[in-house]
Amino acid sequence: MAREIVQTPNAPTPPATYSQAVKAAGLVFVSGTGPHDPKTGKIVGVTIQEQTRQCLQNISAILVAAGSSMEKVVSATVILLEEDDFAGMNEEWLNWFPANPPARQGAKLPVRVSGLKISIAAIAES
Predict the structure, then answer these.
(1) 117: three-class secondary structure by DSSP
(2) Cβ count near 67 (within 10 Å)
(3) CA separation, residue 26 to residues 94, 105, 123 (Å)
(4) Any idea what DSSP says for residue 113?
């Protein structure tokens, strides 16, 4: 089975230990993506809604580079720093997935990064 590494300058550059995404088996596996500005690398937003929006914008850019789109997302993992942010994250989530949302699971961030409230990973059809 062939696999293809996906890389775009329209999303934050990941560390050398993982790729933005990998295409394989007819799917696109997007790594955990934070709310970072693709150009500056700085965290965008102070509210969970702003940070969720930036994460999803970054994921969208990666999916477009892979020849996919947000409409093809089948599963997502949302990792929050604080469980109190769940409602605010869902508020922004519904702007991106108003109907027929993907399967989803949640977890708690295992480490603290100054200012970071959320990271999202996704799997989409290619």
Answers:
(1) coil
(2) 12
(3) 26, 21, 10
(4) -
State the CATH architecture for 3-125. Answer: 2-Layer Sandwich (3.30)
**Could you tell me the maximum CA-CA distance found in the chain, to the nearest angstrom?**
42
Any idea where the domains of the chain sit in the sequence?
A: 3-125
Tokens of 99: 């109907």
pLDDT band at 43 (very low <50, low <70, confident <90, very high): very high
What is the predicted pLDDT for the residue at 111? 85
Token pair belonging to 88 = 């605010």
pTM over 0.70: yes
* Interval 52-82: pLDDT, tens: 999 999 999 999 999 999 999 999 999 999 9
Closest CA to 71 of 83, 53, 56, 84: 56
* 3-class DSSP assignment, residue 64: helix
DSSP secondary structure of 9-39 = TTSPPPPTTS-SEEEETTEEEEEEE-SB-TT
Phi, psi for 60 (deg, rounded to 5): -60, -45
